[in-house]
Design a protein that fits this description.
The chain is of the alpha+beta class and 630 residues long. Strand 6 and strand 7 form a beta hairpin. The strands form 7 sheets. The protein has a 15-stranded antiparallel sheet that branches. Strands 26-27-28 form a 3-stranded antiparallel sheet. Helix 13 runs antiparallel to helix 14.
């Protein structure tokens, strides 16, 4: 159940749900407010940005009147089964009302449909419509018109953007003070419906036609039900895995196949802190996890689209490989700050763009090579482009493998020889060898075997610290890093190898808090930023996989199910969780968290109940690779 907390200045991150159309997503609070919406793409400027500011930065709220004054006894939400159609229900002293929100599959324009239904009794409702283009900075010119089909509407225009609001109830203007808002009050009785629709379109074009809300909801329902029915996953954790896959599908930019890390920017990793980043882009680091998750459920079409996006993005000189790209593979993602937005819960600065795109990170070479190997292993058809790209990446990896880098966590401190990065270098050479051995592709396999063995020996020597008794964050260091939990999953060493067990023990002693695992001990001298953040949920799911690989399957299952309980009332996860405050932090929903959830579920299926036949491929392959190297 979603709870509106009157003692807090705004909603918690977990109080939001998302709707989306595989081009963009909107965040809808349990108070019926659309507080974040970028149109027409994930990375477009927001027209509703209350999430990172206040109402004057834009929102669209539909809710019971006097909601904030305690007029609602109970609020509950759910997604219609197998969809991204959101239903919010409020129980008041006078009746029960339901709000249904959806973004229909994209035609040409981006739109949101909302239906208010009287369930019982009667409920007085309120609507506030505050449009601010340009991330909450640009007040539009709003006119009350009739559209070309004779329907009354409100049209907001500023620069290249236009929004048209149509429906059974239209708000009136409030020009008092600085509000520059539109609001309406109406009553809905049992059996009655009030329909509303909002569409973005380029301001230089004619106003588009919008289908009836009922038709749009039916089309949206059919789209998602049809997509979910194609899933082949039937494991023990069907519900959380399928919800995670729906979220990942929603975060897919359908025209290119790219998948964003999150639909939001600058949600803080620590409330009041400055670790606030723009995640509305596509990270190469997600590549293998995305492919494995999609292939686990039989979504070969989506897996192929992601593989093709990956090939296009990395095409070019291997030395120019970036760690992240735009939705279509754009390379220039300059990072700037938006001073007019105070940030979520006054956590500033608010950033758009991401300077990490210019960092050098060795691990992404291994990630890309591993993902393309997984795609080929799964039988995804390709046009002969994939293997030459991989060979070029492997050749370049040989020349740069000795260099320090910024590491998995994109530290803004000094470059170091991060152990995880070197493990992924090993993965790159290992998957190249396996491409020759298992797929019959051509290449200097003897040389690659030699390089793989050299890197393996180097990591075991320089990444291991006798004094600490574990693999450490970087060569010569003493810090522990949760990324080393993946060593068994990628096949570097078996999960029951004494070195893996010792590293797991060190991570549990220093970074684990109940089911939570921190990435590392944040220190300014390591990452160049003030210390402090929540526990990283992907790392917490990695702990599940590491425990299972270590033979502690019952404990792994217990931790996994504790982590599942952290999902919000509609099954979504942010990037991190602050156990002290008991709330989610970081961008939301977070692809990395949901991908790690799917991977952990598959690992438990493979190592805990192999007879199930579900989710075995990735875990079993890592076991076989570990045996070869162990």
């Amino acid at each position: 159940m979603c709870v509106t907390r009157a003692t807090e200045p705004g909603l918690r991150i977990e109080d939001y749900a998302v709707i989306g159309d595989t081009h963009t997503m909107a965040l809808v609070g349990c108070d019926g407010s659309v507080d974040w919406l970028c149109q027409p793409r994930f990375d477009s400027a927001a027209s509703f940005a209350k999430l990172l500011g206040d109402e004057d930065n834009g929102r669209w709220q539909v809710c019971p009147r006097n909601l904030a004054l305690g007029a609602v006894r109970r609020t509950s939400r759910r997604y219609r089964s197998g969809t991204l159609i959101l239903e919010t229900e409020w129980e008041t002293d006078t009746g029960v009302v339901r709000l249904t929100d959806a973004m229909p599959p994209r035609d040409r324009h981006a739109d949101i449909v909302r239906r208010v239904e009287g369930v019982s009794g009667e409920v007085e409702m309120a609507m506030r419509w505050v449009v601010r283009f340009g991330y909450g900075s640009a007040v539009p010119w709003v006119r009350r018109l009739s559209d070309p089909w004779g329907n009354p509407c409100l049209v907001a225009i500023a620069g290249p953007d236009a929004l048209v609001l149509r429906g059974d109830v239209l708000p009136r203007a409030d020009h008092r003070g600085k509000d520059r808002a539109h609001h309406a009050h109406f009553t809905v009785r049992a059996g009655e419906t009030v329909d509303l629709s909002l569409m973005w379109f380029p301001s230089n074009e004619a106003m588009p036609h919008l289908p009836a809300v009922g038709d749009a909801l039916a089309r949206t329902q059919a789209y998602w039900v049809d997509w979910c029915s194609a899933s082949t996953y039937q494991g023990r954790y069907v519900e959380p895995v399928q919800r995670s896959l729906i979220v990942l599908k929603g975060m897919t930019f359908e025209p290119t196949g790219g998948i964003v890390a999150a639909p939001t920017t600058s949600l803080p990793e620590q409330i009041g802190g400055s670790r606030n980043w723009d995640y509305r882009y596509c990270w190469l680091r997600d590549a293998t996890l995305v492919l494995n998750a999609l292939l686990l459920a039989g979504y070969t079409g989506e897996a192929a689209s992601w593989r093709n996006w990956l090939l296009r993005a990395v095409a070019g000189a291997p030395e120019q490989l970036q760690i992240l790209y735009g939705l279509a593979g754009e390379r220039l993602l300059p990072e700037i700050e938006l001073p007019w937005l105070p940030g979520y819960a006054d956590s500033d600065p608010v950033r758009i763009g991401n300077a990490a795109a210019s960092q050098f990170q060795l691990d992404v070479y291994g990630e890309v090579i591993s993902a393309l190997f997984a795609a080929a292993k799964a039988g995804l058809k390709h046009d002969g482009f994939s293997w030459p790209v991989q060979r070029a990446l492997v050749a370049h990896l040989e020349t740069v493998r000795h260099l320090p880098d910024s590491g998995l966590w994109e530290v803004r401190g000094p470059e170091r020889h991060f152990t995880y990065s070197k493990v992924m270098v090993w993965v790159g050479f290992d998957r190249a060898v396996r491409s020759v051995e298992e797929l019959g592709l051509d290449g200097p396999v003897e040389r690659w075997r030699e390089l793989r063995d050299e890197v393996h020996a180097e990591i075991c020597e320089k990444g291991w610290n006798d004094e600490v008794g574990a693999f450490t964050q970087y060569y010569g260091g003493t810090e522990i890093d949760a990324s080393l939990l993946v060593m068994p999953s990628v096949g570097f060493l078996p999960g029951d190898d004494p070195r893996c067990l010792a590293t797991l023990d060190a991570i549990e002693r220093t970074l684990r808090h109940g089911p939570f695992v921190d990435r590392y001990e944040t220190k300014e001298q390591v990452d160049g930023l003030p210390p402090g953040e929540g526990s990283f949920l992907a790392c917490s799911f990695w702990l599940v996989s590491a425990l299972a690989h270590a033979g502690r399957v019952d404990e792994a299952t217990k931790v996994f199910e504790e982590l599942l309980d952290l999902r919000n009332d509609v099954g979504l996860l942010a990037e991190e969780y602050d156990a002290d405050l008991g709330r989610m932090t970081g961008n939301f929903p977070q692809a990395f968290s949901h991908l790690a959830l799917v991977e952990a579920a598959a690992t438990l299926e493979a190592l805990g109940s192999p007879a199930s036949g579900q989710g075995t491929t990735a875990a079993q392959e890592s076991q076989e690779s570990s045996k070869r190297e162990g």
